[in-house]
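[job 0417] fold request received: TetR/AcrR family transcriptional regulator
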Amino acid sequence: MSAKNQGAGPEEPAPVPSKSEQTRALILETAMRLFQERGYDKTTMRAIAQEAGVSVGNAYYYFAGKEHLIQGFYDRLAAEHRQAVRAVLDRETDLEARLAGVLRVWLDVAKPYHEFAVQFFKNAADPDSPLSPFSPESEHAREEAISVHREVLAGATRTKVPEELRDVLPELMWLSQMGLVLYWIFDRTEGRERSYRLAERGARLTARGVSLARFRLLRPLVHEVHELFTDFLPGMTRVLPDPGKGRGDRE
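[job 0417] inference complete; emitting structure tokens
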């Protein structure tokens, strides 16, 4: 027996979810199914509670309303994605490979929820809706997603990222991912094949752009792109920092 095997103890069993966690997960799973079957607007909290086999009061104890159920879905999707990308981020050091892997994994994780996403898209597309990915209510899931892109950049040891762009690029990469999500929602190709191709090509273009950004002459262009998004995309002026703040101190 090898020393490695001798030193390795038995694997610890996965922790068993508490009854409260199981109930919360059951309500969320039931809501996702009903939203897909009946549509978001036509599904009530009472119907969700009835299908889940819990009281209406119990359903409201875990989720204050349907919007909070969607936020629960966002949070779960973000957590599943962060866990699933671990292998990619631990293995790859090239920026294009890291970003392409992160986007592919998101498409893999989101695959079971495609029809559900189609159902509630019209609600999420409303810039004033709490379901919007740009809303204050979506901040936790949004920050989780942006933090993944920060890690993508931080571990891209084969690509030099200008220091003054490190704070701006993760948000721009997340915005690019939102474009991929929008395309994925409307993608009707088998297996969402075109979405995967878009992820690959988008990652290649982003990596090339970051490589070019090492030339100081082109860095203002990156800031211009960021300002374009924050000025014209609803809600982003409240979400993203001003890349110009503190720029003079760094240069």
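[job 0417] notes: The CA atoms of residues 49 and 57 lie 9 Å apart. The chain has a mean pLDDT of 82.
[job 0417] exit 0
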